[in-house]
Specification:
By secondary structure, this protein is of the alpha/beta class. Strands 1, 2, 3, 4, 5, 9 and 15 form a seven-stranded mixed beta sheet that branches. A five-stranded mixed beta sheet has the order 12-11-10-13-14, sandwiched between helices. About 40% of the residues are buried.
């Protein structure tokens, strides 16, 4: 079983003496964990994955783990919050707090409202993040970009789906400890990008099936891509397999390599971190 307080690190140290300016650091921060990937740009190689317990202090975490303390070529930080909105470009103002009034909550005293443009489709993402965390991020890293945690996933999923789907609808689902991201694609468009609370495999199956029913997508025909807290053959996987015939784990970014020295890590937990390379400057 998963140890909720354990640190995991997987490194290829062959290039550890090379300048940090060759590297991109890719981070995803949620309420419990910081997931990290190190990408060597001249070797086109992922040289490390890691997962660290997050105790609400990025500064403390960086002080404790030296591989996070360098002047990287760029740091991409995806902040995981359920409070985000994917909207058509030029239709809404992502900097306007009023866009969150109907369906989202925004605490102006403790949160920052941020936005970023998607490249793969004519849309942007508005999202909230704790103001204290945003300050810590910009204090910690010199060359840094802060994005919504869903941005790299949508960039990769939409582009890959249009190339390979042959018209078949697709669901992409990321399972967090107590939340569930669901994104749905059909008819050349993204139809759903939302996060739901979940307490186990029954909730996971229910929300995915509920979304497929609302969107009139047949589970036996659509593709289901999973990532996060899931493994092939675990209880959630087996339950979903009763309804979905085309299931797979999210793949790394196609254009990059992962070092052969990185072994025995959870592919659903880490491979998708590579998608953040689509968001570098």
């Amino acid at each position: 079983m998963e140890n909720p307080s354990s640190t995991e690190e997987y490194f290829d140290l062959s290039f550890s003496e090379e300048p940090a300016s060759y590297y991109y650091l890719l981070l995803t921060i949620d309420q419990e964990w910081v997931h990290a990937a190190w990408y060597h740009s001249t070797k086109n190689l992922i040289t490390g994955f890691a997962r660290y317990p997050y105790q609400n202090s990025l500064k403390t975490l960086i002080e404790q783990h030296p591989y996070l303390r360098s002047e990287f070529k760029e740091v991409i930080v995806g902040v995981q919050k359920e409070n985000y909105l994917v909207y058509p470009k030029y239709v809404l103002d992502g900097a306007n707090p009023n866009i969150f009034q109907l369906t989202n909550a925004f605490d102006e005293d403790h949160e920052s409202l941020m936005s970023s443009e998607l490249v793969s489709l004519q849309a942007s993402i508005a999202f909230t993040a704790p103001s204290e965390l945003i300050t810590e991020i910009y204090d910690a890293f010199k060359h840094v970009k802060v994005i919504s945690h869903v941005q790299p996933r949508i960039e990769q999923e939409f582009s890959a789906w249009r190339k390979t789907s042959a018209g078949r609808p697709m669901f992409s689902v990321h399972i967090w400890n107590d939340q569930l991201d669901i994104r749905a694609y059909k008819d050349g468009k993204i139809y759903l990008a939302n996060t739901y609370f979940q307490s186990g495999k029954e909730d996971i199956a229910y929300y995915i099936l509920y979304a497929s029913e609302l969107l009139e997508i047949d589970p036996e025909e659509a593709q289901l891509i999973l990532s996060g807290k899931v493994e092939i053959g675990d209880p959630a996987w087996l339950l979903l397999a009763q309804y979905w015939k085309r299931m797979e784990i999210a793949q790394p970014l196609e254009s990059i390599k992962i070092s052969d020295h990185l072994t025995d890590f959870s592919h659903p937990c880490f491979d998708h971190l590579t998608h953040a390379l689509l968001c570098v400057s």
